[in-house]
Amino acid sequence: xxxxxxxxxxxxxxxxxxxxxxxxxxxxxxxxxxxxxxxxxxxxxxxxxxxxxxxxxxxxxxxxxxxxxxxxxxxxxx
Amino acid sequence: xxxxxxxxxxxxxxxxxxxxxxxxxxxxxxxxxxxxxxxxxxxxxxxxxxxxxxxxxxxxxxxxxxxxxxxxxxxxxxxxxxxxxxxxxxxxxxxxxxxxxxxxxxxxxxxxxxxxxxxxxxxxxxxxxxxxxxxxxxxxxxxxxxxxxxxxxxxxxxxxxxxxxxxxxxxxxxxxxxxxxxxxxxxxxxxxxxxxxxxxxxxxxxxxxxxxxxxxxxxxxxxxxxxxxxxxxxxxxxxxxxxxxxxxxx
Lengths: 78, 250
Prior knowledge:
Radius of gyration of chain A: 18 Å
Number of strands of chain B: 0
Number of helices of chain A: 3
Largest interface: A-B, 17 and 20 residues
Distance between the termini of chain B: 51 Å
Structural class of chain A: mainly alpha
Order of helices and strands of chain B: HHHHHH
Largest sheet of chain A: none
Oligomer: heterodimer
CATH superfamily of chain A: F1F0 ATP synthase subunit C
CATH architecture of chain A: Up-down Bundle
Distance between the termini of chain A: 21 Å
């Protein structure tokens, strides 16, 4: 255990930053689940909303990916 | 890299992303051909083979290559028309090029021992900055100073508008960042996960059947992610283009 305390903080911080990805998981699941619920009620309207589904998922996912970016920055750039 | 502690893992998960010069040497200048250059070039060649050579003999009954090319063309054409509106259809060549390059780079990167060019933020950020700059310039060219009206949400109560304008401006300038990080992050994370599982397979002996089977499953997921992320990148380009050509109000 030779590493210094800054190294330790870096790893702990990177690990903590990845918790944010859980939020992205919740968001994407919420969007997909609601899309499915809506699509089962009105299947004929579902294909027209695929683009909106993917845009919504992309926006929700991007915010989670930011925390992944913070983790990468902590590991490799600090 | 991440320090010496992690090197006990036989396969380093981030090693696959190192940019190496193709013809030896260890200094990289801007003109040095590297493995990134090689795989981007292969993506362009495959694109030409698929779209130009595949459709060069245009028969009534299409060959397999021709129908793949026509399907992709129709798919992207529909998407541009649906999302951007009729005014945006003249930017179709740019959107089509973007989609083909991203989807081919993603899929070619999934070949074992290949190099995933889109896992590098330098590559995706270039693509995203090009979209951002062209959309901004196009917006001002098409709508003049009225393009700034995008930030002034006229449907909101007057008290809220300055706050919303601030939020809109921030979200506008975060666009190239999120646009590039989404693609690069997804591709990089997928490849790193596969490598981590490969490390487990090397360490477990007989029980390595389990990680090898999971690699197969994750590989299937990554194929899906590669296509979906290219689709998302393209559709967001269309959404941004819609703001610029003013199709949002029809």
